[in-house]
Amino acid sequence: MSIFYKYLIFTPFFTVFDIMMLLRLCKAGVDTSMKKAALKNSVFLKTFIILSVITFLPLICISLFFSNMAERFWRSESYISSQQSILQYANDVDLRIVSIQNECHRLSTNANVLSFILDPSFNYISRNTQIMKSLNDICELDFGVEEACLYSNFNHLILDSDGKGYHFNTYPDQAALNLYQSGIYQSIMLRSGELSSPSFGDCITVFGNVPENSADDLGCIIFNINKEKVFSLRNHSTILMTAISDGNGKYVYFNENVPAFLQTDEFKEQLAKESSPFIYKNYIILTADSSSTDWQYIGMIPMPDFLGHYQNLSFTFMGIAFAMLLFSLIMSFIAARRIYRPLKNLVSSIKFSDEESLAVTNEYQYLEHTFRSISTAMDEMRPNIKYSFFYSLIVQEPYSSEEIQNQLRFIGEDFSEYGYGLILFVIDQYEDLMKKSGEYSPELCNYQLTELIKAECSQQYPYALVRMNPSSWALVINIDPSESTHFRTLKQHFDTAANSLPFEMYVILSSLYQNISDLPYAYKETQDTLHFLRFSKTKEEKLPGQSPLYLNTKLEEELLQAIQTGSASRFEEIFRKLQEQLPDICSSLDDFKEIATHIVNRIIELMINLKIDTRNTPELASFFTDLKAAKDFDSILLLLKNTSMEAMYSICTYNISHPDKNIEKLLTYIHTHIHEDISLTSLSDVCHMSPSYISRLFKKELDIGFVEYLNRFRVQRAEQLLKETTLSVEQVGYQVGFTNIRSFLRVFKQYTNISPGQYRAEQQ
Predict the structure, then answer these.
(1) Sheet harboring 219-226: ordered strands across?
(2) 260, 526, 559, 688: least surrounded by Cβ within 10 Å?
(3) What pTM, to 2 d.p., does this model score?
(4) Domain that holds residue 728
């Protein structure tokens, strides 16, 4: 399609766009001057029309003018002549191929030829001479045939156009005979390399069975055609560059002048997509399809310089025209200041009192004042939003990755999603302190701690101080996990500063975690350390290598999760990570025994919560005795691994033998958490079952898939809310667990055949 016709297609769109824009602007003008008698007084509309007439319309006309100038090439005599030449060239080549096929057909019905096929012999000299003369006459014609032969499959004898007879094994063009006998030949095929005729490099071979409609077991006529003689036609010199491709995209022929891009995949793809003619890399590509073969004829002529110049000018003026349209729109808004007046009441209801509104007489000053007031309000909100956001993360409220990014972007302060640690501050004997210090003591403690943290952290890392309860604060620090030394140095500074406070305080450090979503693990780690310190004889926190509580909490939870879900491969992976961390955690055999005891106690606690009798797992009963007798790290590691795996097998066995209890647990969770984003993975984490087991359980017990059951229950709950409440459709969707309104509308209509709005209307 030429560029002119493309513009003709898009011009109506531009016209419709202009009309829609004018209609909207007319409405805006009416709103602006609703107290006036007529639309003609609308400054905005008049300004826009005038600017559009003097800028946009002339540029569009210039663009279409250059497009029309470029279009003239496609009607020029040189282009039409080139197009006719490629068509004529294709017809002439096809005519030669068809003439050769006709000669092949004529010979296949010749009596002498049929006689030789059925009774091949070199003794019938007269018959054979006539046949070889006919073959030679065809070679003498101006069809490009250089070799012709007749082959009989009975005695494997050949008569050739050179006036000689051959046996199968002595014939020079052995490759052609092999193609025929193997049955992989075609009526017209390109041969090259080892398969080509020995007399010249590449050739086109025509095979014709004798008799014509016989099978491949009698004999055939073979013509070898010289490609250069067939495709090089002197009377088509107007086509400067010519190529011919077969149905598979392989080039049968091309002359020496063709550009290199002809062989590229990009050109072949565009050749298959575009219809003739089209422009490619400053060349005009013309094509013609053969009527007798599957060949495609390709002609290439250089694109005239003026055509490219006119096209570029047309595109340039089109871009400038739309830029001027936008300029006209902006200038019209500036000229019609009264269009902002309807905003006054809205802004007044947000921030200003009536007196303040009247005091600001200039509309732009009014809007600027409003913007600054809203910006100030947002700045005042950020600390509370930061506190609420990090508190929600610590207590494991669900956030999607997009929601986390949006919250961090609003909070600012250079917070990122990666690299977080947590320091827990806990006042010791908090109740006694409150009794002694009076009612203002909590605010005083909070102020003193806040000032202490500001002094240490304000210029180092982004941080958030979150009050978890009256006696404890969690300091969340955005710090790269590789900076663990700096993190511990910061904790030591807090220890020193805490000694100057008028009350005793624990300062507890977590490990550094990769992601912001790992904050619950960091908080749990500090909580466990706090319990350890309170029950130990000293309040001095042990350093890594002296306390099992420095085992990475996330790693510990992942290990328990693998045991709960029965994932042997996941267990092996987590246990390997644990084994790699042991040199950094343990400095003695006793430390390692403490860690092993801690992990096994967590496993026993898990089994008790699942109501599994631990006495059925003898490895658990003998673990502590065997652990006491262990003398080296490898023995403890093997004992811990074997005990954990046996517990995992016991949990799997219990799940399989109690499917009714498992499905009841799953359904209870779904019914009570339907407002959340429930998935197989989240259900697996909560109910301690593998996703594949949950999926099989739904199919077996309920004869329905997990997703199908979840969607049906959500639609049932949505129907109830639509019938019994006045919540909007979007609010109902969120109440039943859909994260966006489109999904809710699609699923609801899938199961009820009507939209939520229609359902509510019917029920009312």
Answers:
(1) 165-167, 157-160, 145-152, 219-226, 203-209, 188-191
(2) 260
(3) 0.41
(4) 658-763
